[in-house]
Design a protein that fits this description.
The protein has 270 residues and is of the alpha+beta class. It has a single domain, classed as Endonuclease/exonuclease/phosphatase (Deoxyribonuclease I, Chain A), CATH 3.60.10. A six-stranded mixed beta sheet has the order 3-4-2-1-12-11. A six-stranded mixed beta sheet has the order 5-6-7-8-10-9. The protein is globular.
């Protein structure tokens, strides 16, 4: 099974690029973040033409997450239990579903904005609740194949940003954020892509960041022990940041072995 996650930075603006990338990369499940639309605006037809079904969660022109798959989705959940509010709204930042026994959550972790901004406290609360739920999922079934995928808006290591000096006193690299990320690792979830593909997943549009390779690694596939054990390969598609009107993030892709899983006799992609 090939699973990918991609902050597309507006599905309406990037639909041509996304469906072309899906068609070329033989993806079974794509988790998207920052789709920036509500259901009436989502381009369902373009995915259905490729044989994908869509489950999305979007409330307005901000945030929004989706799962598109050519494997039937089961037990779809929009939001996780106890998900915190921001300004009295439970934002569209999480959607989960099960695909051939693999539970995938598409997550768009709050940005945090500034260290003294209410959004920063909201980000930490959001991560604490997600962590509590994730710990509970593994306690209920230690052998569950769970992937927490998406834009985490955290660079957990100094090497995950181009220059730590540029981030002094800023979000994404603060110790509380890194501690929140590490808590998932202590709970048994691991970054299954890093061993195969180091490097950045995001480059700001400003100041020629991509050309200078001044990026950040903030998009992750965090797998439970059983999920991590099934990983066969992974890569970060840096090339998706090139060309006309790209997202500022690139796809992160994982191939896993799922015995007896969905198979339509397609040839393998290389």
């Amino acid at each position: 099974m090939r699973i990918a996650t991609w902050n597309v930075n507006s599905i309406r603006a990037r639909i041509d690029r996304v469906v072309e990338w899906l068609d070329e990369n033989d993806v079974d499940v794509l988790a998207m973040q920052e789709i920036k639309c509500k259901e009436s605006q989502f381009p369902f037809g373009r995915f259905e033409e490729l044989g994908y079904e869509v489950h999305m969660h979007g409330l307005n022109q901000w945030n929004g997450v989706a799962l598109v798959s050519r494997i039937p989705a089961e037990d779809v959940e929009r939001g996780f239990s106890g998900q915190p509010e921001f300004r009295d709204v439970v934002e569209a930042r999480a959607i989960g579903a099960t695909f051939d026994g693999v539970r995938i959550w598409s997550l768009y972790v709050p940005n945090g904005r500034e260290l003294d901004d209410p959004h920063y406290a909201y980000k930490l609360a959001w991560l604490r609740q997600l962590h509590a739920d994730a710990v509970g999922w593994l306690a209920d079934d230690p052998d569950a194949r769970i992937a927490l995928v998406g834009d985490w808006n955290i660079a957990p290591h100094d090497t995950d940003v181009w220059d730590m000096k540029a981030f002094a006193g800023k979000t994404h690299v603060s110790q509380p954020e890194r501690d929140a990320f590490a808590a998932f690792e202590r709970a048994g979830f691991s970054d299954v892509v890093r061993p195969y593909a180091p490097g950045y997943t995001y480059w700001d549009y400003k100041q020629l960041r991509f050309i200078r390779d001044e990026g950040m690694r903030i998009d992750f596939v965090m797998g439970s022990p059983a999920f991590a054990a099934s990983v066969e390969n992974a890569f970060v598609d840096r090339g998706a940041r090139e060309g006309v009107q790209p997202s500022d993030h690139v796809p992160v892709v994982v191939d896993i072995d799922v015995p007896g899983a969905f198979d339509d006799d397609r040839p393998m992609a290389f």
